Amino acid sequence: MYLEIKNLSVDLGEFHLKNVNLNLKEGEYLVLIGPTGSGKSVLLETIIGFYKPIKGTIKLKNKIINDIPPEDRGISIVYQDTILFPNMDVYDNIAYGAQKKFSKKEVAKKINEIAKKMKIDNILHRNIDTLSGGEAQRTSLARALIVEPKMILMDEPFSALDVATQSKLTSLIKNVCKEYKTTCLHVTHNFNDVWNLADRVGIMKDGNIHQLGNTSEVFSRPESNFVADFVGVQNIFEGKITEISPEVAKIKIGDKTTINSSDINCINKINKKYKEIFNEKNEYINKEIKVLIAIRPENIIFSNEKFESSARNQMKGKITEIIESGPTVLVNVAIEDHIFKGLLTKSSADILSVKKNKEVYISFKSLNVNIISDHEKFNHATIN
Prior knowledge:
Layout: E1 3-11, E2 16-24, E3 29-33, H1 40-48, E4 55-60, E5 63-64, E6 75-79, H2 90-98, H3 104-117, H4 133-146, E7 151-155, H5 163-180, E8 183-188, H6 191-197, E9 200-205, E10 208-213, H7 215-220, H8 225-231, E11 235-244, E12 249-252, E13 258-261, H9 264-273, E14 289-295, E15 301-303, E16 313-325, E17 328-335, E18 338-345, H10 346-352, E19 359-364, E20 370-372, H11 375-379
Parallel strand pairs: 3-8, 3-9, 6-7, 7-8
Antiparallel strand pairs: 1-2, 1-4, 4-5, 9-10, 11-12, 11-14, 12-13, 14-20, 15-19, 16-17, 16-19, 17-18
Helix pairs in contact: 2-4, 3-4, 4-5
C-alpha cells in the first residue's frame, strides 16, 4: 500500500482518534465524509505531522513517518480557506515551495505547465487580493501540486465556493490529479465530491472510520444504523429469506409482504455460508435466514395504477406523510407495518396528485434491493 495507517490513536483532550485503520493505493482518490466533529481534519493533520499519535503507525511508501517532521514528509495540504501570501503575486505564491526543490529554470517551466492545467496562466501577474474564491483556490492547489508531493490532503477545499465554481473546480482537480497520478485524501461534507471524485469513500464518526469501500457499496449496503442514516438509505427492513436461488432471493418482511432481491454478490455469500440450506437434489430447504434489506428512496417508482414493468417488486400502500425539501418531495407509504420512503420531483408529485391517505402503487427493481447479511453487526455496531 502507498499509505498505510494501523491502529492510529490521537489524544487531544476533549477529542480522540480511536484505532483508525486506513490504506490508499498509489494514485487513488479517497474521500472521507462524516458529521462535524467526527475527526476528519484531525486525521489529516496527524498524517501530515501536526499531531503526534499516542499509538499506531503511519506508513508512506512502506516507511514509518510518525517521527518525521511535517516539512520532510513529502505531503501537501490544501484547506477550505486559502492561505496565500498577500505580499506576493500568483506566480510567486505558486513558486514559493518549488524554489526549495527545483532550479529557477525548472520552477518557471513547472509553473507554466501547472498554471495552464489549473487554468490560471492568464492571472500569474495578479495580486492575491484581486482574485475570486475559485482563482485563489486554484492557485493554492497549484502551489500544492507543483512540488510533486507523495500525496495531497484536502480539507473541505471547495466548501467556501459557490455551487457553479465548485462544479468547475471539482472537474478540474479530478483531471489534474489523474494526470499527475497524485494520491489524494479528501475530507468533505459535500456528497457531490464523493460521487464526482472518489475511487473509495470512508464514513467517520467519533474519531473512528465506520465503513470504507467503493462508493456504490457504501451508499447501497451500509454496515450500521449510523452509516445507513448518514448516506440516506432510508428504507432498511428486517426480514427472512424464504426462497433462494443463484439469481434471486425472496425475503419476507411482514405477514404478507415478500420482496425479491437480485443482489448476486450477497446471494453468493449466503449460499456459501449456509450450504445446508440445499438438500441432495439442490432444492432449497426453508431455513428462514434472518437478513436486512436496503432500498434507496430514489430507486422507488410511484404510480396511481398497477402496471407491467421490469421491476420485480410492486405493491399497494397508503401515503402517510409528504415532506418537501427543495426541488424534491419525500413520500412515505405504509405497507402493512412498514413505511417505504421514496423521492419524487415536485412536478412528478403534482402529476401523480400525491396527498396524505391516498392509495398508490410503489415498485422497485430487484437489482436495487441490497441484502445486508451481517444482521447483528448492523444493529450493534461498536467503535474499536
